[in-house]
Amino acid sequence: MPAQEDKDKIDAKSGQGPREDAGFLASHQTREATSWMPWIVAAAVVILGLGILVVVGGRSTPESATGTGMAAADPYAPKLSISGIQMSEATSFSGAKVTYIDGQIANSGDRTLAAITVQVGFHSDLGQFAQRVAVPLSLIRTREPYVDTQPVSAAPIEPGQTRDFRLIFDTMPADWNQQIPEIRIISVRSR
Prior knowledge:
This protein is α+β, with helices and mostly antiparallel strands. It is built from two helices and eight strands. Strand 1 (80-91) and strand 2 form a beta hairpin. The relative contact order is 0.16.
């Protein structure tokens, strides 16, 4: 019982119970109440910020004015037509698979073309792009004994000309739907 009596004693100077216990509990309770408030405010700000990020970031904006996710076409592109697209595959000497896209490009404009860059968009089964890649257009120089290509600058395309081209891809996306990809002329350089 003596321990109980010590707890029940009141300090004559301060009018309080034992100084150690009261001081510890009083300061601990006060600190706890005020120390949690900044954390609660910070958590609320973070949650609000994440909510805004989800709402604003969740909206997908098209990468181009056409809304297809492809780069914008070059202004001269309407004067160029791509036709006769065919795809093929081959295995290289190292055993890697190579995919080819062959076709014809016709220049119905009034400029001689020295370089053309196209963007090729491979779609997935979900209708989205599995891969988009920009590549320079290479012209087919010879077909026998094998297909040999050269850059457009080596044999510029004159107005009114139609030329055979080949695009070469060393890697293909795993989720590609095996259909002919979308091809867009995104850059044209003339002489």
